[in-house]
Amino acid sequence: MKKLLTFVFSCLIILLLSGAILFGLINTSYVTPIAQWSINLFWPNKIQFQRAEYDYPFHLRLFAPTVQLGYQPITFAQMDIWLNQHPYYAGKWHIDSILLDGANITDRLPSIDWSQTVILHQLAMHNINLAEDDYQIEGLSLQVKNPQWNMPQQKIPFGELQLSAKTLNWQGEQFDQLLIDADYKQQDSTIYGFSFAWRSGQISGQAEQYPAGWSLVNVTVNHLDLSKSVSNQLQYKIQSLPTNLINHINSLDVLNSNISWQGIELINTDLSLEDVQLGSPWPYSGEVSAHADTLTWHGLQWVGPNLALNFSPQTIRVSDFSAGFWQGNIQLSGDISPNDVHLTNLSAQGLKWYGEHQSDWQDLPLTIPNWHSLTIDHLSLDNLQLIQLAKRPFWQLTGLNIEGQNTQFMQNNQLGLWNGSLKVSANSASIGDTRTSQAILEMNSNDGIWQLSRAFLPFEHGYLDANAQWDFKQHSGPWQLNIHTDSVPIGILNQFINLPFKFEAVADTDMQLSGLGGSTAVIQHTLNGKVSANLREGTLLLEYDNHTIAQPFELNKLQLTADRGRITIPEIKPDGIGFDATFGGSFDLADSKAGTWTLTDHIDNCQTVSFDIWHNTTQVNQCRKN
Q1: AsmA domain: which residues (predicted)?
Q2: How far apart are CA 217 and CA 494, in angstroms?
């Protein structure tokens, strides 16, 4: 563009040097050949035009001028030049204005040093179509006051400018009806106003340039529509932009827009950002508030979410978050940092989750972030319902309530109740065919010393009562567990333990166990305690040699002792009509190959079937024939 203007100024100077000699001629039909002859004297075959007009005293118009610059000529529909009323003073030529009208430019113009003898007060372009490698502009109009070219390859001169364009295409993104009013400088530029249409939205606002980057001022975005596929493309395209192009948002309002970005989808959202200093991994300062009809994240949909955030260099303060979720409501507030989460409140009411398909599990955010700590001052989850029907055993929790005070659930990236108190109750709970109602769990922890002070699970004809303690702040901290049951159905164990037979029974048990935690291996080597049990109303389902036998039984005074992982079960005889069997054994939890724990059924005087519970095998010993 500078080279083009240099040619124009040179032509103008040549014409002016003709002075009074040519003054009479240029007001006649000879103006065109005179102008062309004068230009060709100094710039042969560089600029051609079909016709020229001169309007006394300062206006020269060239029709269909063609300028040979770069590899391809540029043809304009018209070029208008207005001289200053004092065209030459202080040793320089002064041009009030140049207007370039109507052109298709496809070749980047080479840079050229600006003439030191010419001052241009205003440059204007109208109806220009420009095509570069990474962008295309249609219907460009530009007006620059006191234009200055200070850098090589500078595409637009510095100065006070007004720019408009019908369309701007950048890497496949189309911006329509572009308007810009700015003071464009080498640094500290100001955009007094801009507006354009993009992706069904209308965007307008102001901006200021600082050494660290641009600041958006009073920007409004209305009815923007960014789908997931579009946002994925944009993230790739944005990588080509300069780093920290925009580093501050003074004020930004997004209204009535649909936005999908980095896994979050907002439908009909209103979003407001105030005094936001952008940074990584999140803004250094500022306030954000938002509302949407729906928010979708990792396949989970939140209805009518409201959000208010405050940013500081290392913390996001959630002043308020509330949303409809799983047919209920959830609210939270607190502080989030890269390594820690401290919620002052987390409450939910009436949540309902139905896991009817395997995909329902995949939608759950089950991965726990690698936080150093997770603390919740007040936790209140009321009347929840969880139903799992995707795989056996089916289970459900109805009327689930969880209340917590000053709870810490993570410390040093380890999950557990490290501090605080927690109370869990359920109106109804079931797993398989085993059901309980009005179950309650109460626990507390102080610096990693966890206590289950009460666990009471009523069943239809019995109950389970338990308490426990575990010091899990130590790598292999001690633990103990006490359980008492009365008429508790135990058939559900078939779903979790691989045995060579199936069984149903109700159990009366007393269990006192202890050991060290930390890992499975440590528990296997340190388990101590004893278990006494009576099994009643039992049925064994025995399968061997294509036979299936349903054997009623009772097992009284069953004793089990554990000594540093070595288990001993004294042999006893189950009771049952036609049931001649023995039950017992010994084994070491740390050695899966050694030891036995068997139920041996004596079928008749010589045939026995041995069910090895420890190794999950069945052995049939046939009668010997004489």
Answers
A1: 2-570
A2: 66
Measured distance CA(265)–CA(296) in Å, rounded:
5
Give one DSSP letter per residue of 566-603, joined into a string: EEEEEEE--B-TT--EEEEEEEETTEEEEEEEEEEEE-
* Burial profile 295-331: b = 16 or more Cβ within 10 angstroms, e = fewer: bbeeeebbeebebbbbbeeeebbbeebbbbbbebbbe
Model confidence at 113: pLDDT above 50: no
Strands 395-411 and 373-388 turn out to be antiparallel
Q: Are 218 and 205 in contact (CB under 8 A)?
A: yes
Dist CA 14 CA 27 (whole Å): 17
Query: Encoding tokens for residue 125?
Result: 């372009």
In this prediction, residue 2 carries a pLDDT of: 59
User: H or E stretch including 32?
Assistant: helix 31-42
pLDDT for 112 equals 41
Higher pLDDT, 404 or 580: 404
Grouping H, G, I as helix, E, B as strand and the rest as coil, residue 155 is: coil
DSSP string, 379-401: EEEEEEEEEE-SSSSPEEEEEEE
Nearest by Cα to 35 from 49, 21, 55: 49
Alpha helices in 296-423 (DSSP H): 358-362
Distances (CA, A) of 320 to 136, 295, 330, 346: 45, 16, 11, 10
Count CB neighbours of 495 within 10 A.
Answer: 13
CA 7 to chain centre: 55
Strand intervals (E) in 106-245: 118-120, 122-131, 135-148, 158-170, 173-184, 190-198, 201-210, 213-222, 225-226
Tell me the residue type at 76.
F
pLDDT tens figures, 347-361: 999 999 888 887 777
* Mean per-residue pLDDT over the chain, rounded: 85
Q: 78: how many CB neighbours lie within 10 A of its CB?
A: 19
Q: What is the pTM of this model?
A: 0.79
Give the closest residue to 328 by CA, choosing from 307, 308, 300. 300
Run of H or E including 231: helix 228-238
Express each pLDDT in 320-345 by its tens digit: 999 999 899 999 999 998 889 999 99
CA 322, CA 289: separation in Å to the nearest integer?
12
Measured distance CA(616)–CA(336) in Å, rounded: 49
Helix 31-42 to helix 2-23 angle, to the nearest 10 degrees?
120
Element (H, E) at 264: strand 264-277
C-alpha torsion sign, points 133, 135, 137, 143: negative
Q: Is the pLDDT of residue 33 over 90?
A: no
Q: Does residue 452 surpass a pLDDT of 70?
A: yes
Q: What is the DSSP pairing of strand 51-55 with strand 72-89?
A: unpaired
506 vs 271, 464, 487, 509, 571, CA distance in Å? 59, 12, 5, 10, 20
- Using left for φ > 0, alpha for ψ between -120 and 50, and beta otherwise, residue 289 falls in beta
Judge whether residue 23 has pLDDT over 50: no
Give a three-class secondary structure readout of 85-130: EEEEECCEEEEEEEEEEEEEECCCCCCCCCCCCEEECEEEEEEEEE
Q: What does the alpha-carbon distance between residue 52 and residue 61 come to, in Å, rounded to a whole number?
A: 6
Mapped onto helix, strand or coil, the DSSP state of residue 293 is: coil
